[in-house]
Specification:
The chain is of the alpha+beta class and 170 residues long. Helix content is 46%, strand content 11%. It has one domain. Pfam families: SUR7.
Length: 170
């Protein structure tokens, strides 16, 4: 087996540390705004565009009219209506009426991944009870469990970012 010079090893390690830092930076800033590039970076995306149809079919044919909002700038979690797509990142979650029309929540660290609570909070009040009734109890509805996992993931990535930057510098 040939011996690789130390300069090649150090250069390769520096390059890969730099790439790791760049990827972690993209991971951290992915949910800070809804512009073209960051909009596509998220931990989790959830499409709820078919929820209204499922609600209508499962609830004795009641109409789901008014479940969704068409206002992309309506505030989140105030009962103004569901959006079609939700995306969660480390610092916020965003909701989109259309692929390029959305709004993000306030930025905080770590943003907890609580999809069911977010969905119920966005739905108009007349849909809260039926939504809680038709969605079965599962990991999806266990917000404390999912929130603790996302908090742990945030801190691991945050510490990993710092350590990768230190590795690149050193």
């Amino acid at each position: 087996m040939p011996i690789i010079p130390g300069e090649v090893c150090i250069g390769s390690a520096t390059f890969f540390s730099f790439v790791a830092v760049l990827l972690l930076i993209f991971t951290h800033v992915g949910q800070l705004n809804t512009s073209t590039i960051p909009r596509g970076i998220s931990m989790v995306k959830m499409n709820v565009s078919g929820f209204g149809d499922a609600l209508s079919q499962s609830h004795a044919g009641d109409s789901a009219a008014g479940l969704y909002t068409t206002n992309a700038t309506a505030p989140l979690e105030e009962g103004d209506g569901l959006r079609q797509i939700y995306a969660w990142g480390f610092y916020s979650h965003c909701a989109y009426v259309a692929p390029e029309q959305g709004i993000c929540s306030n930025k905080s660290q770590p943003n907890l991944f609580q999809p069911f609570d977010t969905m119920v909070a966005d739905a108009p009040a007349k849909f809260h009870t039926v939504t809680q009734f038709i969605v079965p109890n599962s990991g999806f509805t266990d917000s404390s469990f999912l929130g603790s996992l996302s908090r742990g993931a945030y801190w691991l990535c945050f510490i990993g970012s710092i350590l990768a930057a230190l590795a690149m510098i050193l």
